[in-house]
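can u do me a favor
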C-alpha cells in the first residue's frame, strides 16, 4: 500500500474559525478531543459546543462541495435548452398546419403568422396569430443531449415559461431519425399563467397520438415540439381583459430541463412515503367536485390546488396512504370507445375521511 500523508492542523474545537482548515478535504471525522480539566465550563466547551462546532463546519464544507457540483451531478436536472442569446434559438423550427375533419394537414398555409425571436430585452419569444380555428403553429427541434445522457434516466420535463396564459400541446417524437414513417408521437396538454411560471410534465402523462402505439419510452425520444391550437383555448381566469382574442399567443421560453428520477431512491430508502401525482393544477376552490384515485398513469383531467393540499395533509396521518403512489384528478366521463376501465369517484367531505376508502383498493409499492 502507498503511504498516506498526514497533515497536522493546530486548532481548538471551541473556536469555529480554526475548524475550517481542519475539515478541508475530509469525508469522515473521528472526534477524540477532551477537555484539559474537569471544570464544568471546559467540559461543556469541548464535549458539547465542540461537537456542535465541528458538525456545523463539516456541514458547511459539504454544502460548499454540493454547490460546486451543481449542474454536474447525475442527480441534478439535465439542461435540454436554455434561451439566453440569439444563438440559442438555432435549430428551432417554426411550422404550421391545420385540421380538416380530424385529418392533420402539415405545412398548411392558411393565414397564420408565427415567429420565434430573441428580443432586445433578452427574451426568447414564440408568438403570433392563427386566423383559422382549425389551424395550429408549432415550435420544434431535434434534441441534442450530452454524451452519455438519455432521457430514460429522468422522470419528466420542467419548462420555465411566461406569456399571456395560453395552453399548449407538448409533443415528443420517437423512432428512427432517418425513417419518419416509423415515428411515433406522444402528446400532453399544458397550461401556463399570465406572467412567468414553471410547468412540470412527467413522462408518464404523455399519451400516444395513435391509441395502438406502446407507452412512451423516453430513451427513444429525439424531437420535442410545442404546439399552439386556437380551438383548445379557454379565457384566462382572473384576467382583467373582458374580451380576449384566443387566436393570438405569446410564449416566452427561459429553459427546458429534464427532472431527475427520485421515486426509486425514495422507495429504496426505507422511509415511509406517499407519492401523489395530480392532474393539471387549477386555481379554484376545493371540495366541490368528486375525485378519481387511480394507478396506471391513465388520468388526464385537472384538479384544484386546494384539493391536492388537502390530500397531502390527510396522507400524513392515514396508514392507507403509506408506501403508495397514485394519480388523482377530477371525475370525468370517458368517451364510449375509450372507456377501458371503471373509476370510483370520492366526494371530498370534511366530516369524513374520504382518503382511506379511496386508497384502500390501491396497491402498495413496497
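np, heres the sequence
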Amino acid at each position: 500500500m502507498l503511504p498516506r500523508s498526514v497533515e497536522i492542523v493546530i486548532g481548538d474545537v471551541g473556536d469555529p474559525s480554526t475548524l475550517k482548515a481542519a475539515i478541508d478535504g475530509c469525508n469522515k471525522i473521528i472526534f477524540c478531543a477532551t477537555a484539559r480539566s474537569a471544570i464544568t465550563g471546559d467540559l461543556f466547551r469541548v464535549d458539547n459546543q465542540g461537537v456542535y462546532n465541528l458538525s456545523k463546519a463539516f456541514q458547511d464544507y459539504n454544502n460548499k462541495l454540493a454547490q460546486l457540483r451543481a449542474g454536474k451531478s447525475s442527480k441534478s436536472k439535465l439542461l435540454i435548452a436554455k434561451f439566453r442569446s440569439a444563438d440559442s434559438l438555432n435549430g428551432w423550427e417554426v411550422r404550421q398546419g391545420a385540421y380538416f375533419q380530424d385529418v392533420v394537414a402539415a405545412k398548411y398555409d392558411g393565414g397564420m403568422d408565427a415567429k420565434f425571436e430573441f428580443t432586445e430585452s433578452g427574451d426568447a419569444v414564440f408568438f403570433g396569430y392563427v386566423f383559422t380555428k382549425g389551424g395550429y403553429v408549432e415550435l420544434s427541434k431535434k434534441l441534442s443531449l450530452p454524451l452519455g445522457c438519455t432521457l430514460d434516466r429522468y422522470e419528466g420535463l420542467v419548462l420555465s415559461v411566461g406569456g399571456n396564459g395560453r395552453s399548449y400541446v407538448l409533443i415528443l417524437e420517437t423512432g428512427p431519425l432517418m425513417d419518419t414513417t416509423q415515428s411515433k408521437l406522444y402528446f400532453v396538454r399544458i397550461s401556463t399563467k399570465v406572467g412567468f411560471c414553471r410547468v412540470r410534465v412527467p413522462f408518464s402523462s404523455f399519451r400516444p397520438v395513435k391509441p395502438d402505439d406502446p407507452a412512451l419510452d423516453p430513451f427513444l425520444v429525439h424531437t420535442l415540439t410545442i404546439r399552439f391550437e386556437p380551438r383548445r383555448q379557454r379565457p384566462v381566469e382572473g384576467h382583467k381583459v373582458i374580451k380576449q382574442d384566443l387566436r393570438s399567443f405569446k410564449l416566452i421560453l427561459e429553459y427546458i430541463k429534464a427532472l431527475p428520477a427520485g421515486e426509486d431512491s425514495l422507495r429504496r430508502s426505507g422511509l415511509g412515503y406517499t407519492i401523489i401525482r395530480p392532474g393539471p393544477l387549477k386555481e379554484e376552490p376545493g371540495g366541490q367536485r368528486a375525485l378519481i384515485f387511480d394507478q396506471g398513469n391513465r388520468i388526464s383531467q385537472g384538479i384544484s390546488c386546494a384539493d391536492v393540499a388537502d390530500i397531502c395533509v390527510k396522507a400524513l396521518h392515514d396508514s392507507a396512504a403509506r408506501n403508495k403512489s397514485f394519480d388523482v384528478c377530477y371525475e370525468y366521463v370517458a368517451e364510449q370507445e375509450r372507456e377501458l376501465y371503471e373509476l370510483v369517484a370520492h366526494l371530498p367531505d370534511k366530516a369524513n375521511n374520504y382518503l382511506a376508502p379511496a386508497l384502500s383498493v390501491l396497491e402498495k409499492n413496497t
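The two ends are 43 Å apart (CA to CA). hope that helps!!
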